[in-house]
Specification:
single chain, 16% helix
């Protein structure tokens, strides 16, 4: 599944960039997100989101761990998630690009997700 779009944000690019990895802002921004916090692992720091999606058959809550891929200050953030449950797993990557706009910042995103296991069968 691919999802893309853009949003004009009435804030300076620095503020928008900082918000992309702010747990409190993500908690308020991600539909169904119950909590967001940073967790330290031997491989590095990850952002843990606890999410209950509003999709029939996927009641939740599910823990989703986000890793950062490419990060270019004030310009780009790549987020990578690979949540797994008894229903299967998802491999997802989201590329977020920021550019200046007359009214603030233009945020564009391109996300690709691939479902595997029983989860894929439920969503087809």
């Amino acid at each position: 599944m691919d999802v893309s779009g853009s949003q004009k944000v009435k804030a300076h690019r620095t503020v928008v960039f900082d918000a992309l990895l702010n747990p409190e802002i993500l908690k308020k921004s991600v539909p169904g997100c119950e909590s967001a916090e940073f967790v330290d692992f031997p491989a590095g720091r990850q952002l843990k989101l606890t999410v209950s999606p509003g999709i029939p058959g996927l009641k939740g809550p599910y823990n989703v761990f986000l890793q950062t891929g490419e990060v270019i200050a004030l310009t780009r953030v790549v987020l990578i998630a690979e949540p797994t449950s008894s229903l299967g797993s998802i491999k997802a990557t989201c590329v977020i690009d920021l550019t200046d706009d007359a009214a603030g910042t233009n945020l564009s995103y391109n996300a690709h997700a691939r479902w595997m296991g029983r989860l894929r069968l439920l969503l087809i």
